[in-house]
Amino acid sequence: QVQLVESGGGLVQAGGSLRLSCAASGRTFSSYNMGWFRQAPGKEREFVARISWSGSSTYYSDSVKGRFTISRDNAKNAVYLQMNSLKPEDTAVYYCAGPVRGDSSADYWGQGTQVTVSS
C-alpha cells in the first residue's frame, strides 16, 4: 500500500511559478514510475508528466513541455512538479500518482492540490 499526499498548490498570476510536492509512504516507492495528472472543472483528467523509478527518464504532455519539470528524491520518498510560465489554462486540481501505467492510469492516487492561475 502506498499513500500519496500533495502540497504546494495555490493561486498565482499568469506567468508565475509554483512547485508541487508529493510525499509518499511505503518502502516500494523508489521502484515506481511516478506521475502527475490534472483535472480542470468540467473536463476529464489528463496526463501531465511522468518520471522513471530512477529519475533518469521523464516524459511530458505537449501542453506543459518546456514549462514544467518533474523530479524525484527517492531518499525522501518525494516527487516534485516545478511549474513555470503558468497560464490560466493550467488551472486544475493536480494529482500525484503511481506506479504510472502509460499516460492514463496508476494504482495509487493522492487527494489532489488546487492550482489556480489568474489572468
Describe this structure in words.
The strands form two sheets. Strands 2, 4, 5, 6, 9, 10 and 11 form a seven-stranded mixed beta sheet that branches. A four-stranded antiparallel beta sheet has the order 1-3-8-7, with no helix packed on it. With 119 residues, the chain is mostly beta strands. 0% of the residues lie in helices and 55% in strands. The protein is built from no helices and eleven strands. The mean pLDDT is 95. The protein has strands at residues 3-7, 10-13, 18-25, 34-39, 46-51, 58-60, 68-73, 78-83, 92-101, 105-109, 113-118. The relative contact order is 0.31.
Give keywords.
mainly beta; 119 residues
Gist?
The chain is mainly beta.
Any chance you could write out the topology, listing elements then pairs?
Layout: E1 3-7, E2 10-13, E3 18-25, E4 34-39, E5 46-51, E6 58-60, E7 68-73, E8 78-83, E9 92-101, E10 105-109, E11 113-118
Parallel strand pairs: 2-11
Antiparallel strand pairs: 1-3, 3-8, 4-5, 4-9, 5-6, 7-8, 9-10, 9-11
Radius of gyration, in Å, reads: 13 Å
User: Number of helical segments?
Assistant: 0
Shape: globular
Strand content: over 45%
Secondary structural class: mainly beta
The helical percent reads: under 10%
**Poorly predicted tracts of residues:** none
Separation, N- and C-terminal Cα atoms:
40 Å
Biggest β-sheet: count, sense, barrel? 7 strands, mixed
- The overall pLDDT, averaged over residues, is 95
Q: What's the SSE pattern?
A: EEEEEEEEEEE
Number of strands: 11
